[in-house]
Amino acid sequence: MDGLRAKHIIEAENPKVTAVILKPNVGQIFDFCCNRVWVRVNEKGKVIGDPNPPMIG
């Protein structure tokens, strides 16, 4: 699935959540935040699913 599509679905299903797309080789902030979901994508912008589904943080 395309990362932008995943972001829109996540935010539509829960308007209190912000989805953040993480591109390859980009650092992640490690402060925990209940209203943020990390969506990891590959070089082509496709969601990397197994073993790393979108995660809260």
From TrEMBL:
Keywords: Protease inhibitor, Serine protease inhibitor. Belongs to the protease inhibitor I13 (potato type I serine protease inhibitor) family. GO terms for molecular function: serine-type endopeptidase inhibitor activity. InterPro entries: Prot_inh_pot1, Prot_inh_pot1_sf. SUPFAM superfamilies: CI-2 family of serine protease inhibitors (SSF54654). It holds the Pfam family potato_inhibit. This is Proteinase inhibitor I78.
